[in-house]
């Protein structure tokens, strides 16, 4: 969800739930905040001006080291680039 062209944490969180690297989408009602930390990191890095590839690498590392998940970071990079192009994150 975007408001007046500004990227919101809700929009970034939705990207994670659509991507669902941990495979927990079916349990979303029970763990609605599961991707909040990753969404916060992503939004902060977007606002800082980091490139989508760098953000995706950071998130992939977080998922590998903290969650034991080996995601395809390229998928996230594409989604981040799309978010960045579609909304003002400054």
Low-confidence stretches: 1-5
- Strand arrangement across the biggest beta sheet: 1-2
Average pLDDT for all residues: 86
The major sheet is characterized as: 2 strands, antiparallel
- Rg, please? 12 Å
Q: Which word captures the global form?
A: globular
* First and last CA, distance: 16 Å
Give a concise summary.
By secondary structure, the protein is mainly alpha-helical. It contains four helices and two strands, in the order ββαααα.
Describe this structure in words.
The protein is mainly alpha-helical. The protein has 4 helices and 2 strands, in the order ββαααα. The chain has a two-stranded antiparallel sheet. The radius of gyration is 12 Å and the shape is globular. The N terminus is likely disordered.
What are the main properties of this structure?
single chain; 90 residues; mainly alpha; two-stranded antiparallel sheet; 4 helices; disordered N terminus
What's the layout of helices and strands?
Layout: E1 2-3, E2 6-7, H1 9-19, H2 36-48, H3 52-67, H4 73-86
Antiparallel strand pairs: 1-2
Helix pairs in contact: 1-2, 1-4, 2-3, 3-4
């Amino acid at each position: 969800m975007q408001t007046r062209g500004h990227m919101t944490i809700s929009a970034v969180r939705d990207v994670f739930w659509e991507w669902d690297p941990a495979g927990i989408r079916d349990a979303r009602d029970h763990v609605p905040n599961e991707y909040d930390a990753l969404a916060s990191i992503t939004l902060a890095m977007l606002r800082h001006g980091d490139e989508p590839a760098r953000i995706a690498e950071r998130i992939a590392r977080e998922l590998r080291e903290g969650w034991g998940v080996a995601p395809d970071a390229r998928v996230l990079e594409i989604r981040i680039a799309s978010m960045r192009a579609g909304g003002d994150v400054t």
